[in-house]
Design brief:
The complex is a heterodimer.
Chain A (H helix, E strand, L loop, with lengths): L7 H6 L12 H31 L16 H7 L2 H33 L5 H13 L2 H11 L6 H8 L22 H30 L2 H9 L4 H30 L2 H6 L11 H11 L3 H9 L1 H21 L1
Helix pairs in contact in A: 2-13, 3-13, 4-8, 4-10, 5-8, 8-10, 9-10, 10-14, 12-13
Chain B lengths: L1 H53 L3 H4 L16 H9 L2 H32 L5 H11 L4 H14 L7 H6 L1 H17 L3 H9 L4 H30 L2 H6 L8 H8 L1 E2 L2 E2 L1 H21 L1 H13 L2
Antiparallel strand pairs in B: 1-2
Helix pairs in contact in B: 1-13, 3-13, 4-5, 4-8, 4-10, 4-12, 5-8, 8-10, 8-14, 9-10, 10-14
The chains are: A mainly alpha, B mainly alpha.
């Protein structure tokens, strides 16, 4: 918090000749070091962001890129479209449900990964796979796992007698059609998101678990607190800020991702799994209506801003703690 | 006689207690192993299924009554060979690789000095500036891809892999700065002060004393940035459409599916071939990544 370093001005007047070469002037150096990154990000993030707002208020299409002001007409158009409301609702459901599952499963996974056992290296390698694999490719693996005819899950269910004969608990048809039934398709997309992001949440929470001072836990043990008491009164409160960060990371990745939806269901069946990002993509890139696409994508922003503020608070709480 | 009884009681009690603790310990160990194996299986299940699929013959794969987890006909590597010989998979992998290398290079070149400035040069605004940069990481591609694709067209980079080299650093720089701040703060100040006493300028001390010490952390950042680059999907999908310019994450799902015909074995082989090396390298640096994350966040 307080650095006991001598300020640069005093250091320069300390014994010896004052060195005032450029490479020693910390203020100038700091700006020189920061400028390239700042300019890069301003040009390629801030400017496109302003541009996106401009597009949302214009009639730009891929065929006719000339910029004409249309006011809020794009927003009126997208509000009239029931698919938009469906996408917004789906986005919120996907994010909310995944976030809860990711935090719970991430904590469980983190507890497993900090334990000591043989073969830990292999287990960690396998656990990392879902997160480090490019999401489009792992979605392809899932696409085949959930295939409408050859899904091995269905095969197991059939062998167990849960599926595929008259009176079976899961239906007499030979397959579940995971990606063809609206409810199951949503559940599948959520499952893939959770499967993919839980390892990241676990890694973030491992960082939190590792940072808990050992003596705290031992003091509680000596005082006679049992496992669950220690869990709820020492470990969880200590991990909470990190868990919040993990949750928000998970939420933002789920919220803004479209690869899983795009590869698995392409928004279907009948827009049942359409999310804001994929809908903006279909409108803006495939459909060529850049203005409407931008207007749809902009809807992500207020919610993201709220999430960002929450992250800021969590980080600050960590600094205090 | 009474003596031996009074002595025997505590001894047997101790033995019983010891046995109970040993039993509890054994059960605890079993629990840990069961949980670990279960977690690993759930996480790796789709890839195991991909691995089996990749080597199956068509007549084996497309028979609903066959056990999907066993080879009902001899395994074949035909589809893996097909992947390399008859599809552009090699090109996709190469594109992903060189894009990743260039993006990582740009990220380090711009990000490392920025991280140093925020970690060490004692500017009063360093704290909130660091947080602001981190927040940029939260502005997602889904918000920017439409306007960036217009920018890419204006720059004449549409349908070229170079557009990705230009745009991806906007994703990797913020998070890399955040991680590197953590690594740089972990290096004792004395070291660069000693270097400056020895006659190096601040710049020289950074380059000759700090960078070599931060090298392990830098490697972790390289791995992390490369993983992010390889996974990106929306930009790659919206900027680049010719198949020779595609990267793995868009090329495999789009090019290996022709209409409604899926080359399942080749698709799954591609997935496994990409997944394993990335996870392998990432696992080597996992511990470092964890420390970086805590230091960047906690020691603000």
């Amino acid at each position: 918090m307080t650095h006991v370093d001598t300020p640069p001005s005093q250091r320069a007047t300390a014994p010896g000749p004052p060195r005032k070469r450029f490479a020693d002037r910390e203020g100038a150096l700091a700006w020189l070091f920061l400028m390239p990154s700042v300019v890069y990000i301003l040009v390629l993030v801030a400017v496109p962001f302003v541009l996106a707002i401009g597009f949302a208020l214009s009639d730009v299409t891929t065929g006719d890129p000339s910029f004409d002001w249309v006011g809020l007409r794009n927003f009126e158009a997208i509000f009239d479209d029931p698919v938009f409301w469906r996408s917004l609702w789906n986005t919120l459901i996907f994010t909310g449900v995944s976030m809860v599952l990711i935090v719970i499963l991430g904590k469980v996974l983190a507890n497993i990964l900090v334990a000591n056992f043989r073969g830990k290296w292999l287990v960690r390698f396998l656990v990392l796979l879902p997160w480090t694999t490019p999401v489009a490719l792992s979605s392809v693996a899932w696409l085949w796992l959930l295939d409408s005819v050859f899904s091995p899950i269905d095969w197991v269910l059939r062998q167990l007698g849960l599926l595929g004969h008259p009176g079976a608990p899961l239906g007499s048809e030979s397959n579940m059609y995971y990606l063809g039934e609206p409810g199951l398709a949503m559940a599948s997309v959520i499952a893939v998101h959770v499967w993919r992001i839980t390892p990241l949440a676990a890694v973030i929470m491992m960082a939190g678990l590792v940072a808990i001072p050992r003596d705290l836990e031992e003091a509680a043990k000596v005082d006679g607190a049992g496992y669950w008491r220690r869990m709820f009164e020492v470990t969880i409160p200590m991990v909470l800020p990190v868990a919040a960060v993990a949750a928000l990371f998970g939420a933002i990745f789920t919220f803004t991702d479209m690869a899983v939806v795009d590869v698995l269901t392409n928004g279907g069946p009948n827009n049942a799994t359409q999310v804001l990002t994929s809908w903006a993509f279909f409108r803006g890139i495939d459909g060529g209506d850049v203005g409407q696409g931008a207007a749809i994508a902009l809807f992500l922003f207020p919610i993201l801003l709220a999430a960002a503020i929450a992250i800021l608070r969590a980080v600050r709480r960590m600094e205090v703690g | 006689m009474t003596n031996t009884v009074t002595e025997a009681t505590p001894e047997s009690a101790v033995a019983a207690l010891r046995a109970r603790y040993r039993l509890r310990h054994v059960f605890g160990r079993i629990g840990v192993y069961v949980a670990a194996v279960l977690a690993a299986l759930i996480c790796a299940a789709p890839f195991l299924w991909s691995l089996i699929t990749a080597f199956k013959q068509n007549r084996d794969l497309y028979n609903r009554n066959n056990n999907p987890f066993a080879f009902n006909r001899p395994a074949t590597s035909d589809h893996v060979i097909y992947l390399f010989d008859r599809t552009a998979f090699g090109t996709f992998a190469w594109n992903t690789f060189w894009v990743g290398v260039l993006v990582v290079a740009i990220t380090l070149l711009l990000g490392l000095p920025a991280a140093y400035a925020l970690a060490r040069l004692d500017r009063p605004w360093a704290g909130w500036f660091g947080v602001a940069i981190f927040l940029v990481y939260l502005v997602p591609p889904s918000l920017l891809f439409l306007s960036l694709s217009r920018v890419v067209v204006l720059l004449g980079l549409q349908d070229s892999t170079w557009s990705l080299v230009l745009i991806y650093p906007t994703i990797t720089i913020p998070v890399s700065i955040w991680l590197m701040i953590g690594f740089l703060k972990a290096i004792p100040r004395d070291i660069e002060e000693q270097a400056m006493v020895d006659g190096h300028s601040r710049l020289g001390a950074f380059w000759r004393a700090v960078v070599p010490l931060a090298f392990p952390g830098i490697v972790a950042v390289i791995v992390f940035a490369f993983t992010l680059t390889a996974s990106e999907y929306i930009y790659a999908l919206s900027f680049v459409s010719p198949s020779a310019e595609k990267v793995v994450s868009t090329g495999v799902p789009t090019e290996l599916i022709r209409g409604d015909v899926f080359f399942w074995q080749s698709l799954q082989a591609a997935t496994v071939l990409v997944a394993i090396p990335i996870a392998f390298v990432f696992n080597l640096f996992l511990d470092r990544f964890i420390t970086g994350f805590t230091q960047g966040a906690v020691k603000g």
